[in-house]
Structure formats: C-alpha cells, structure tokens
Amino acid sequence: MTDKNAVKLLIIDDDTHLRESLAEVLELDGFECHQAADAKTGIEAAKKIDPKVVIMDIQLPDSSGFQICQTLRKASRETILIMMTGRFLSAEEKTQGFELGADEYITKPFDLAELSIRIRQLLTRGAKA
User: Rounded to whole angstroms, how far apart are CA atoms 70 and 44?
Assistant: First the structure.
C-alpha cells in the first residue's frame, strides 16, 4: 500500500539492477518510486505522475541526461533533478548540467543512505523557497 503523502520519485536508468535496487531502498525510506529504463519512457512518466524528484543517468541508450534535464526543467521549476554518472565529469559538463537545471550530481558508486539524505535536504530547501 502506498502512502498518499509519500514524495513521488522517478528513477531513469537503463541499468535494471541499479534502478530496482535504488527504488527498493528509497521506498523503504518512504518515497513512492517509479522507474523508467530510457529517456522517452522517463519523460512520459514524468508528465503522467508529476514526480517531486527525478534521478536520471547521464548516459542512456536513447538520449542523454542533459537532454532529459532540459526537457523536465522546462516543464517544471519545482521538480528536483539529480544527475547520476558512472564517470568523472569535467567542470564544463557539470556546469552544462547546472545551467540546464540540474540540482545535484551523484557519482556511481554512491552510498544509498547519503543519497536519501541529499534528497531530503533538497526537498527541505525547496519547501522553504
């Protein structure tokens, strides 16, 4: 049973194991998790469910996290956008993501407890704004 007050979170990543593991852990932390394996499905899901938080991989088979970030940011100023990457990003790449509307970056592998804390901090900041 889903808590009606749970924060909706969307995870967009083509790595099924990572996506499902993230959703499992974040659901235990009280989030209502939705998943998408590619950019197209992720953008459609975001329009349908209106998540408060989107965690997206930068490298997807059908698009880049940068393009998803730009699309989702145009649709909503309030959605928290977290970019995930498995490689070192240059300062230019990070700047590009922030300019497109990313709120945070996390580098794989990352600590799931830390991710949950970061999400809650971003949600708290957004509530104060």
Answer: 14
